[in-house]
Amino acid sequence: MLSGMRVCVPSAAALFGSLCHGCRSRALSLSFRGFSWSPRKISRWNSQDSIDLPPAENPRILITGGLGQLGVGLAEILRKQYGTENVILSDIKKPPPEVCRSGPFVYADVLDYKNLRELVVNNRITWLVHYSALLSVVGEANVALARKINITGLHNVLDLALESCLRLFVPSTIGAFGPSSPRDPAPDLCVQRPRTIYGVSKVHGELMGEYLHHKYGLDFRCLRYPGVISANTQPGGGTTDYAVQIFHDALSTGHHECYLRADTRLPMMHVGDCHRATVEFMQAPECQLSLRTYNIDAMSFTPEEVATEIRKHLPHLKVTYNPDSVRQTIADSWPVRFDDSNARRDWGWKSTYGLEELVSDMLSSIRDKRTNAGLQVS
Prior knowledge:
The protein is of the alpha/beta class. The chain has a domain at about 135-375: 3-Layer(aba) Sandwich (Rossmann fold). Helix content is about 40%, strand content about 15%.
């Protein structure tokens, strides 16, 4: 066990998320929204024959925004641990066939409270992972929609988690910091004041979750993700997307045009570390958590540094720089490094991928995908 980690013997509720403290009193203090029952269920995995409650050690998990960068990968890991039928992916988009074959998938619009409540009740959900959000660049292009999804959708999920005593995970981001925040490193607790609707909505979520935890006992958990780098999904409208696209370009055309300056340093993380951090944090007993929102760190690099590492494998890679004013301004307001000492102390967080390992894995994974798809590899 890591030095300094607090030890406790948690209740089954703290371990498995089936209950949170304050649930009984909450029924007296909260006015729940009106609801009319519908028999809708997931027909393939949630048949009428499956009416027994799941074992206490297996949470029932719903993931919103499941077709984004992180949902499918997280579901795969959770299904290996808790069983395929206990992890339900959801989104408003039609899933590809391989996602449908991998386990339960349902339509869920986070702006539709009644629909979400049906899913939670009918499928006996105990953990909710809320990945639905518009990211930084997309959000700045459509502030009204970002406000609806990132704030109104969040409030629906918070209300539902309170009512149903769910363990709720809502990711935050490097974008929750602003130009007045400490940058090297950024601690868990400091001035934030972001200047994007994405960042503002994430700070709002952090504070609302912490407030509802202290007032009503909501088991709210939040990690501030760095830029997440994955070979399995395409970039989704974030400021750190270049760090994914550069690998695709290196193996396809051999040329990448970067929308940030060559010296723009930002915190980054391999998707494998991101998923592992999320699972370990969700599994941590409540009494080990001194905070409700933690930074997690892995590495920090610039576009030029990652390009240099890629050239060790692909010497022909050419990178040109054409800074985009919107993305560069956003990046310049963010920290260059996270202080994640609290996560390391409280629940034993430790990253495994450095820059060298990340580059090697990304190139290998994308090369295999292009070869299997019959695409040329540069």
